[in-house]
Amino acid sequence: MARRYPNRVYMDWPAPYETSREQRFPFGQVMELPNGSIYRYTRMGPTIGIGARLYQSEVPDAEFDTLVVATGAVAGDTQLIITNGTTAVTVNEFAEGQVVIETASGLGHVYPIKDNTIAASGAAITINLADGVTFQSVVTAGTHAATLTKNPWLDVIIAPAVATA
User: Which of 8, 28, 34, 35 has its CA at a distance of 20 to 30 angstroms from the CA of residue 149?
Assistant: First the structure.
């Protein structure tokens, strides 16, 4: 989902407690109530939400760190194909997340992800960049590595006693 909302939306009660099957806002959207309370739009992880609890992003999966670039890109491209690790990927699992280029000329470049394809263990994942975003330098297949990170507001979990993310 492309970010097409303002940085902050103003809502009224009971908006922070409403649930829906369809995504209503980009994950992480800031919502402010008339009394100044601030909330963020999230999607719950594998557990049911409980009131008056502290939540955190899910623990990042190391399987998506330093992945091999299978099909490279040139400056101006909007798509990258990466070889998956050993964890299967679902459609749009990294939507609204980021891809970080880790080696050579693209070192440290961070790009927002629009969507991604499904991929089994070891298969190719196609990453499409957010609308209006293009690669700023060459990303070479087999030479460059990339790390995928989910949107931190996607699949939140109840925080354990000891912080994990």
Answer: 8
